[in-house]
Structure formats: structure tokens, C-alpha cells
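Worked example (supplementary).
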Amino acid sequence: MARSTQTETRSQQHPPQPHHLVPTSLVFSGPGAPPTQPPLLLIPHQHQYAQIPFPKPMNGSESISIHPENGTMKDQDAIKLFIGQIPRNLEEKDLKPLFEQFGKIHELTVLKDRYTGMHKGCAFLTYCARESAIKAQNALHEQKTLPGMTRPIQVKPADSESRGGRDRKLFVGMLNKQQTEEDVYRLFEPYGVIEECTVLRGPDGNSKGCAFVKYSTHAEAQSAISALHGSQTMPGASSSLVVKFADTDKERTIRRMQQMVGQFGIFNPAVALPFGTYSTYAHALMQQQAAIMAASHGSYLTPSVAFPATQIHQMGALNINGLPPTPMTPVSGLSSPPANITTSAVPSIVTPIVNSFTGIPHHQPNGHPAVEAVYTNGLPTYSTHSPTAADTLQQAFTGVQQYTAIYPATTLTPIGQTLPQPPQVIQQQQREGPEGCNLFIYHLPQEFGDNELMQMFLPFGTVISSKVFMDRATNQSKCFGFVSFDNPASAQAAIQAMNGFQIGMKRLKVQLKRPKDASRPY
DNA sequence: TCAAATT
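After joint prediction of all chains, the assembly is encoded as:
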């Protein structure tokens, strides 16, 4: 299929221009008004080709619909636009002037998180007239950058207006980092009409060696896979070209989870499950776990760096039952929100984490003592020093214990079913377990005593002994200790889960204790 | 080597 000569001019021959920042007023007017462009199919911009065809008008039907609230009417063939890269402090009323220049607005809705109400940084916009949408897209899409944003505004038909495109979107891997959108376009062009071609880049603008290519049809995408996947090895690439369908949203979520697992060194059977059998419920667990981990990093990492904002807010939005928490008031009294986190976005992360813990049943269905007793019991008191790292730490461990203590089994307990019984605490003197049941733990937090150590490992089974070694002279922890389980499987599970568990700048070392009599060869 | 976001 021949492309227009227009396309030929889209090469990335010049270094990316800095994006123009719109001034305080979002309304373009006078000399700064958006340039009038012919209705285009291919919009040039920094890192992306975006050929965005509008859905065809319904044949001959010119019926109208009336907005229930503002009474505006829209054409039957109106296009719902997705607006992206909106600063989170802009609401509908702030955005209206910007978009009204292109026509009367039928509906403009800023997307909010359903639980937290948090602005998602994007919106849907429907004009009364189809033509207005086309004008707005041509004038704004990738053309302007709203104040505070680093990337240009997105104005394009919402996914709902077409099929979303997931079934015709390809991921291209093993490109070399010098290849531009233009190069990728050339490569994929023979197999169909390309609607979008994006090379993924890091913050520095350097290619990540992969790209997305969206064809107009699934069949075209499929033929590109057949023709190109593995067909060649780009100079400098470590293996042959990868061409496959891009991840679905679900897969992306899973991928992010896996990254979190990698990042935080968590492994918990109950949480690992969603990789096989994905469920919202499991997702909620994972999200929470990640939130907890984020809290434990509070003093070292900017949470917004660790997680996309949407994720952070989702984390807080679900309690352990996978349901939205009803009250937003802390009830547990376990800990106060970390005082060290002062970024405005952050309290909303931390508070819900604490809140969400209230979703834990106070009594087991089987009549055993409350799970809460297990994890509240003997938690360190940090009230004498500033509630910073230690406080978040406390939350972190408390949280880990909650999950694993409530769901220690390798299968998720369906909601409403009897929960597995938490492992019994057998208080003891220094008891050593059988071979393979005794762990050596290093890099413990200074504040951890025997009890905290036990708390940390209870989720993995019955702890028959826990001992933190103390310096006799100073009565300070030596930051290592021993934990014994009653069976080797628990010990192994604990190693899996906790070895490498990051606390502040350090990672726990969790390994089998060397048997006393295991004489080393030399 | 899988995006920032799609009610």
C-alpha cells in the first residue's frame, strides 16, 4: 500500500525540539493560536507517529442525543476523545476553556479513581459536533504541553471508539538503540497500514531498544509477525528481532507485579498465584503488599518513583478482602502514619495501608484467637524516637505478617470460606529445631528483639525459637539472630520469602544455620 | 525488551 508523500517528510532528522509550554492561560488566542492544519492522518511529533483515523460516521444517520445535565446535543457520529497528559490539578472547569475553542462541548469528564477520587491525569471529551473533535485533535494532540507536564497533551479517539487496538498492536523487541520511529516504520510498512509507531525511550530520550507498532487490522499485524519475527538480528542487538502482540492490560499489570516482586525480593506463595490464576482478589493482595513495601522504603525512596501514581492509589483502595474499605479512619491503632513522608501525594498512600488492615477479621471462624493478637503482640514500640524509618518498618513487617499469617496456605482462600488457622506460637527457651529447620538471619534492624524476629517469621510456620544476639556490654542487638521452625518446609519458605528482603539500605540475609557438628573439610 | 493514562 502506497503511503502519501506526507509520510516521507516525517523522518527524525532533527534532534527533538523542547516542547512548548503553554502559559498560565490554557486558552490559545491571538498569534499563539493553534496553527490551522489540514485534517491529517499522520501527526509528526517527537517520538511517535500517530495516524489516528476517526471512526466512520454512521451511514446517513443524523440523529442526536441530549446530555442529561447540560442539555447539549451531540451528533450521532460524534467522537469521544481521550485526553491525556493533564496536570492533576486541573478539573473540568479548568480544561473547558482550552477545548471550547474548537466547538461546543457535549461532555467533559476528568477521570478519577473510583475509590480515592484521585485525578488520573486524563479525561474524556465529547464535542457536540464531530468536526470539533477532529479540529481539537489536529490542533492539540502532541502539539502542546500543559504546565507541569513533561510530555505533550494527548487528544485522540478513546479506546471505546474503536476496538482499543490491542489486537493489532505489536511489541517489537531487539531493535538497536539507534533505530528511530522512521526506521521501524520502514521495516513494518510493507505488511499493512501503520496507525502508530513508537520507539520506547527512557527519560533521557534514549531508545530502550523496543517499540510499539499498531496496524489497522489484526491480520496485518499477524502478517508482520510471520514475516519479521526472528527474521534478522539488528547490529548490536543480542538476539534476533522480536515481533509479537503487545501485552494486554492484564499482562501489563502482571508484569508490573513481577517487577515489584523483583524489586522488593518478596516471594509469597499466596501472592505468587495470580501469575497463574489472575484474580482481582489476588491483585488486591499484591497491590497491598507492594504498598507496604513502599511504606517500608519511605525514607529512602520517593514513592512516586517506585510506583506509578495510579498504582499507589489503587493499593490503598482495596482492603484484604479485595473490597473498598468503608471507613477511611484508622481503627487498628497499630501505628501512626510515617511522619517522614511529607510529599503531598504520599499520605494518601500510607494512610489507606493502615486503614486497609482493618479489613482483617478479629476472630477466626474457627474460634481461634484473633489474628490481630498474633501481629500486634510484642511489636516494637518506637515512641521514644522519631517515628520515621522504624515506624514504616513496623508497618511493613506487620503487613507482611498479616498476609502470610492469614493466608499461609499455598492456595488462596475464597472469600467467605474458613481461613486457615494461623501458625501456633509456642513460646520457649532456646530450642533448636531439627536439621534444616534452623535459620541464621543477618542484617536485622537494630530495634528488633526476639519477639520481632519471631513475628517476622511466624507467617511461614510454627516458630519454636527465635533469638536475636545482643552485645553484652552495650545491650544492643548485634543485628543477627536465629529462628527455628518445627519443619524444614517452613524454613525453606522463610528463606524464599525473606532472604534479600530489603529494609532501608540493607537486605536481610536468611539462610540455614550451619549445623554445629558439620565440620568443614579444612 | 512491554508506555502515562481509557469511566
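Two points are worth noting when inspecting this output. Residues 438-512 of chain A form a domain with the Alpha-Beta Plaits fold (CATH 3.30.70.330). Chain A has 15 helices and 18 strands.
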